[in-house]
Each structure stands twice: as C-alpha cells, then as structure tokens.
Amino acid sequence: MGADATWRQVVRLALPALPVLAAEPLYLLVDTAVVGHLGGVYLGALGVGAIVLAQVSTQLTFLSYGTTSRAARLHGAGDREAAVAEGVQATWLALVIGVLLVGVGQALAGPVVRALAGSGPLADAAESWVRIALIGVPMILVSLAGNGWMRGVQDTRTPLKLVLLGNAVSAVLCPAFVHYLHWGIEGSAIANVIGQAVGGALFLRALARERVPLAPVPATMGAQLRLARDLVLRSLAFQACFVSAAAVAARTSIGAAGAHQVVLQLWTFLALVLDSIAIAAQALVGAALGGGDDRRARRLARTLAEYGLVFGVVLGVLFASLAAVLPRAFTADPVVLAEIPHAWWFFVALQPVAGVVFALDGVLLGAGDAAFLRTATLASGLIGFLPVVWVSFALGWGLVGIWSGLALFMLLRLVTLVARTRSGRWAVVGAVR
C-alpha cells in the first residue's frame, strides 16, 4: 500500500479520534478557566483534585488501549464479532472495578488529598471536589472500554459523537453551577459527574445495538487482565511522576500550584491531541499483524513516527506564539501569571519529542508489546523524572526543576522507543498475541 493510501487511512482514523482524545482535557481547560476566576486557592485545589481523579482513568487505560490492541488483531483477522465481544468483557470489567473504586475512593479521599497538599483551605477545597467527582468513575471506565473496542474495529466516528455530547453537557453546566448558582468548586465536580453519566450511558447503548452476547466470559476477562498488568504498571510510572510534580508544586507556593495546573492541563490537552496519531497506529498496526503482514506493520511504524514529529513541531510553534496571551484566559491572578513562564517554555520545546513518543507508543500498543512499554516507562520515571523533581523540592528550584524532570523523562522515553521500534522484535503476527 502506497504512502498516499496510508496517509488517508491515518487521517480517516486520527481526525475523529483527535476531538475524542481532546474532549476531556479540553473540558478540564474550561473547568480550569471557570474555577480559576474564583481565585488562586481554588485553582490550586482543582489541580490537586484533578490529579487524584486522573489516577483512576489513567491507571485503568488497559480498558481502552488493551481492548483496542486485542480487538484490532481480531478485526484484522476478519472476525468483527469476536472483536466487539472484547468490548463486552471490557465493559463488565469497567463496571465492576468502577463501583469498587467509588467505595475505596470515598474512604481514602481525605488522607490522599492531605498527603499531596498538606492541610489548609486548598486541601479542604480539593477534598470536597474529589468526593463528588468520584461518583462518576464507573461511567468514566465504561467510556474507556467503549472507545477501546470501537477503535479496534476502526470506527472512530461513533465515539466522537458520544464523547462530545457528554463533555458538552459538562461544559455548559460547569459555569452555570459554579458562578450562576454559586456552588463554587463543588459545582465543577457535579457538572463533571453529569457529563460522564451521559457519555457512559451512550456507550452502553451502542454496545447493546451490536447484537453480540452480553454475558460475562471470565476467560476473556482474565486474558484482558493479564495484559492489564503491564499497562497498569506503565500508567503507575506516569502517575508517580505527575503526582510528585503536583505535590511539589502545591508545597512550593499557591502561585506555583496554580501555574503548574494551567500548564499541565495544556500539556495533557496537547498530549492527547498528538495521541490521535497513536490511536490510528494501534488500529492499523494491530490489524496488519492480525492479518499476518509484519512488513506493513514496520512500514507503518516509520511513517507514523514521521507524522508525529511534524505534528509536534507545528504545535510547538503555535503555542510559542501564544505565550503572552493564552495564560490570561485561565487566570487573572498576578502571582500565578508570574510563575507560568517558568514551565511554559519546557512545555513548548517538548512538543516535537512528544509527537514521536506518542506515535511510537501507539505502534507498540497496537502490537501488544506492553511488557516492553512497562519496563521502559518505569525506568525512565525512576532514572529521569523522580530524582529531579524531588531534588527540585529539596533545593527550591520550583517549576523549573519540575519541568526539567519532565523533559528528561520524555527524552529517555524517546531513546528507548526508537531503539525498540528499529529492532523489529515487536512485530509478532497472529490474531491474538
């Protein structure tokens, strides 16, 4: 298949996936802008609360990425019904795990928030937000599973409609609850939960319409959980880094906590924008290997890395040009605005690196090479990010130290992913790996 055909396939999958990936961080950007006008304390509280809630969805990305990998191979082998059945079992796992996490989360919300932010008004506001937001966890996980199987069968248009509808509900309700009904930061969390409930219900309806057996199958769920082990450990490495960064920022100053929240949400937003190429990579590479074509899978890896690099350069240039104006959309607090440049230029410079890293993540996830991704991410976090961020705390380097650690983490990931991709050892053919 020629380069033009490959580009068309990538665009067909990536363009609808892009707004799906960007919808949640875009909503959080709206949320940040709305809450930011309550003041620096509430902006910092939202930053801590969002990090806590992110642990849930991020640690359980196997419901999305693992399901895509397995479903894509089955779809490539010509068995769509079996591919959708992966989604059924992932949804059962999402519901069971989600309900358990609501209970555990309510019990631990206070101690976890205080461990991150200490005590005081910021921690109190963050705990209140987290307790409400946790109610939406089961439907967050259902949406992850729904995205996973749909991407696996190369349908990225349906998730676009469902996710955007749920997030639109949240985006409309958030300013109404926070400012017009004067519910404060708690109104933000309530709007979040309502939007997640709408989105999750739509994914359940879409799955029911596929007319495949809906009963739980323990053997399939067990296979998904084995893949989940490596993906969860990989996610833990990411979150150990970002939780540490949030904790150091919160304990540095109110201004640093607020500034870190603004730049981190922009980073998360652009990471998921770049991840649209990774979604295409998962679906196309998984289908190629499921169909027995390892040579095409290798060609796709090279091409997708090039696309990611170009996309990252474009985003870096764009956000460099917005440095003087964009932060003011999120807060008018002069202390927060004074801190933002200390993180901003790291964020801009890392976009080309992130473009390649996320594209190759998608390639290896599509190939089911989760064990390598686990080990490489853990090593990059332990060697790169964590030592720098905690030395930064000890020596008072502030946001410069935090974002220096992130830069080292990303560069180490780039080196390991390029080396693995060039080795070709990930390109194992077959309907199931």
TrEMBL record:
The keyword Acetylation does not apply. It is a multi-pass membrane protein. It is found in: Cell membrane. One of its GO terms (molecular function) is antiporter activity. The chain crosses the membrane at residues 32-54, 90-109, 129-150, 162-183, 189-208, 231-254, 266-292, 304-324, 344-364, 371-390, 396-415. GO terms for cellular component: plasma membrane. CDD domains: MATE_DinF_like (cd13136). It holds the Pfam family MatE. Keywords: Cell membrane, Membrane, Transmembrane, Transmembrane helix, Transport. The keyword Hydrolase does not apply. Belongs to the multi antimicrobial extrusion (MATE) (TC 2.A.66.1) family. NCBIfam families: matE. This is MATE family efflux transporter.
